[in-house]
Amino acid sequence: KKLAKEHFTNDFSTCLAEPTQIRWYPLPMPDKGQTVDFVDGLYTFCGGGDVVSRNGLAIHQYVCNASMKDRCIYNADGDWLIVPQEGELNLTTEFGLMLVKPPEIVVIPQGIRLAVDVCGPSRGYVLEVYGAHFQLPDLGPIGANGLADARHFETPVAWFEDRDVDSFEVCCKYHGKFFSAIQDHSSFDVVAWRGNYVPYKYDLRKFMTFNTVSYDHADPSIFTVLTAPSSRPGTAIADFVIFPPRWSVAENTFRPPYYHRNCMSEYMGLICGTYEAKESGFKPGGGSLHSMMTPHGPD
């Protein structure tokens, strides 16, 4: 059966086009009297492209305070890159278990079944891409060592359960719509697998940052953790970029990000701390959007 999702969409053809700078406050946590799990707590903020032709992306946030009991979800449309901002996530997949907490990220590839357990109010970001999988960026002149290292990515701890239940709900996101089916056993009964198609997590504190040590600004692409390449060489459907703690030592330079325009749209979230280009109104759990070719810079 089809599930109604009031605040979620992958269809941006009817959405309001807004080229101006946008900033959002953090989503409020569910009220104490509410029971909201990861699936029910997904909210779409922006996106582009088409999920049916498998070329595009969407950016969501989640707020939840309850675990997914006898329930799982899989995304038939693409990959999810999940960024917890508050609260740790205990993830159950067909490949095993993972504990993900800020400032870690986790990628759930297309089609993999997932259940999210939480210990309390939780919030975070979800970057969804359809038509490509996330991969490490080409390092070019940087060479072998720098940015995110493949050896620092972790996969689930093997685990399965052989459990019969009266009603186990399998949620599916297909062509941007949510569907539900009921079965009489847990989906997490896979005892063996072969291959390298697997969920994985990464601790952002292990990122090796590069920056200028002379003058001016380097392109933000030097902060790319993962990229989902497009069919056109040198461009991406989405780049996942971070601005970690680092030294800014450029001489004879205005060190905060200067006023500029981009050929790609920028959505920015905040896990913790502050961002040097935004003085107020940009809080952990919030977000901002600077659409392509819209001028923007420091507050």
From TrEMBL:
Keywords: Dioxygenase, Iron, Metal-binding, Oxidoreductase, Phenylalanine catabolism, Tyrosine catabolism. GO terms for biological process: L-phenylalanine catabolic process; L-tyrosine catabolic process. Its cofactor is Fe cation. Pfam families: HgmA_C, HgmA_N. Homogentisate binds at residues 275, 296. Pathway: Amino-acid degradation; L-phenylalanine degradation; acetoacetate and fumarate from L-phenylalanine: step 4/6. GO terms for cellular component: cytoplasm. Residues 5-204 form the Homogentisate 1,2-dioxygenase N-terminal domain. The keyword Cytoplasm does not apply. Its EC number is 1.13.11.5. Belongs to the homogentisate dioxygenase family. This is Homogentisate 1,2-dioxygenase. The lineage of its organism: Eukaryota, Metazoa, Ecdysozoa, Nematoda, Chromadorea.
